[in-house]
Amino acid sequence: MRADDVGSAPSVDRTTGVDEPPRYARSFRPRRRGLSPARDERYRTLLPTWTLPEGDDVLDLAALFGRPAPDVVLDIGFGGGEGLVELAAVRPDECVIGVEVHTPGVAHVLDAIDSGGWQHVRVSETDVLDLLPRFAAGSLAGIRIWFPDPWPKNRQRHRRLVREQVVPMLVDRLRIGGTLHIATDIDDYARQVLEVAAAEQRLDGGVVPRPDWRPVTRFERRGLEAGRAPVDMIFTRVT
Fold first, then answer.
1. CB 121 within 8 A of CB 84
2. Would you say the C-alpha torsion 80, 85, 87, 92 has a positive or negative sign?
3. pLDDT digits (tens, 9 = 90+) for 105-119
4. In angstroms, rounded to a whole number, what is the distance separating the alpha carbons of residues 192 and 188?
5. CA distance linking residue 175 with residue 202, whole number of Å
């Protein structure tokens, strides 16, 4: 068994007052794919402006977005960025922090931010488990996890992001009334999500009809072409 397959016990962040993520196995495959020279130059030019500030300190979301008490949504693993960009274009009052390690997807979002003159979107190229301690308890209006890596093999399933060790830490960052929206086209993963959410007493919700407002991502499209049906699950933090 490799060392990265074992998680340590969580510790309490003295600043946020909530559990820090322990070092569980990574839930993503690094996808730092190369860009064309011109696009790479643009990506490197835009990234310092629109990425989250470096450091371990708790994020001041009001200062980050220049708005008092902003509604902030954490979009985890936005892939190619199509869904994030489409929603950000029609929801300027909703601030979004997108987390992704797929370089072309990040570059796509950066292009949209710059061309649209947006001030309500930021990106982070890091593991979300490393980023979570920087959010204060109850600071997020929503968390989106659409079509996460399914890690389908039995020996890989401990790497799934939506698991019993992680969901309570996500819920910690949601405010009362905040939502956790997960979509997957892997039936086994959907069952796992429902089981983990049922064990989290602060959440209420479950499977919902596919929301008309949720954009069709390239991952969903591939699944539909392969005959897989998406399952949307929305949970609300009630306590």
1. yes
2. positive
3. 999 999 999 999 999
4. 6
5. 11
Domains of the chain: 64-237 (3.40.50.150)
Task: List Cβ neighbours of 50 (8 Å cut-off, separation of 6 or more).
Answer: 110, 113, 114, 121, 122, 123
Is 149 a residue of the active site?
yes
Catalytic residue, candidates 19, 71, 149, 172: 149
| Token pair listed for 204 | 């209420």
Q: Mean pLDDT for the chain?
A: 88
Go through the chain and tell me how many residues it has: 239
**Centroid of chain to Cα 198:** 20
pTM for the whole structure:
0.87
CB-CB contact of 74 with 173 (8 Å): yes
Position 28 pLDDT exceeds 60 = no
